[in-house]
Amino acid sequence: MKRRLTFVTILLVVAFAGVSSAGVWETKCLMCHKEGNTMKAPTKAAMLEKHKTGDDFMKAAKASKNPMMKMQKDDVLNAATKELYP
Ligand code: HEC
């Protein structure tokens, strides 16, 4: 019984990790960049409109002086950029 529980837990963890790595934008960015947020973070649609390429987008992300963007890690930004500009 205990063993089976461990197995199920591992499965759940793997499944969950898979989901979160599949959606960096959803898991790491969207909580701030969602429609109607109060901190003036632009939405995905607004940014896709403003920044035509992934390079542009990445530059804007890095150029932001906002402390909330300063704490975003490069590799996470990169992964999110690849999602939004495939
Ligand atoms: C803790 C909240 C928060 C998180 C998490 C966050 N952002 Fe932001 N982001 C902001 C805010 C607030 C701004 C607006 C700051 C400004 O005007 O410089 C911003 C601005 C940006 C900009 C610049 C927009 C422009 O047109 O100048 C980009 C690009 C961006 N974010 C990308 C991302 C990506 C990609 C992620 C996920 C890896 C992310 N952000 C996660 C709060 C956040």
State the gist of this model.
This protein is mainly alpha-helical and 86 residues long.
Layout of helices and strands, plus pairs?
Blueprint: H1 2-22, H2 24-33, H3 44-50, H4 54-63, H5 67-70, H6 74-84
Helix pairs in contact: 2-6, 4-6
Heme C binds at residues 28-29, 31-33, 39-42, 47, 50, 57, 60-61, 64, 66, 68-69, 72, 76-77, 80.
Tell me what you see in this structure.
This protein is mainly alpha-helical and about 90 residues long. It has one domain. The chain is built from 6 helices and no strands. Helix 2 (about 25-35) packs across helix 6 (about 75-85) and helix 4 runs antiparallel to helix 6 (about 75-85). The longest helix is centred in the first third of the chain and has 21 residues, at about 1-20. The protein is elongated. The protein starts with a helix and ends with a helix. The model has no long low-confidence stretch (mean pLDDT about 90). The chain binds heme C. The site of heme C has 22 residues, from helix 2, helix 3, helix 4, helix 5 and helix 6.
The number of domains: 1
**How many E strands?**
0
Task: Provide the β-strand percentage band.
Answer: under 5%
Structural class: mainly alpha
Number of helices: 6
